[in-house]
Amino acid sequence: MQHFTDTRTAETVDEIWFTEHTPVFTQGQAGKAEHILMPGNIPVVEVDRGGQVTYHGPGQLMMYILLDIRRAKWGVRDLVSALENCIVATLEDYGTHAYAKKDAPGVYVDEKKICSVGLRIRKGSSFHGLAFNVDMDLSPFERINPCGYAGLKMIDCQEIAGPSNLAEAEQKVLMHFCKALNIQHQEFREGFNE
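and the corresponding structure tokens:
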């Protein structure tokens, strides 16, 4: 992501990357060591996105948005809202009420977090994105204060009505993200990387 962002030009086509990670804790730029309680055998990696510490692992859909926001005339708040709204809309498709919080980025269902959001803007372009808990082992979240909040409960789509697998989630999330920004999905190169 860093290399793509640093080497892109005004003509570079925007990309959206979908993937899932092996178990890892990522500590954002605002991260504080006291929020990593007991990492055990899961590596902790410092990253250049906003936010605190979170967990990534199998069964979680990662969506990285590599967009020239200057060219598109989008603000950072536009992107954060689009990321949150695409998850809210995806879950609404399954009859689940989800919502964003003004003071705590991400998406929540009954005060439990199902999606984390963290971005970085450099040279007028965005990278990083969101982590949507679809069907995963949530126990590693108990080893941290997710997003810097002690006692924050994390959930996945298996605990509520939602997409049952990553491919289904990817399709829905991409459709709703493009709709939120009023863009055609064909304007991006995208794909699921393993």
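(Above: one complete record from the training split.) The mean pLDDT is 92.
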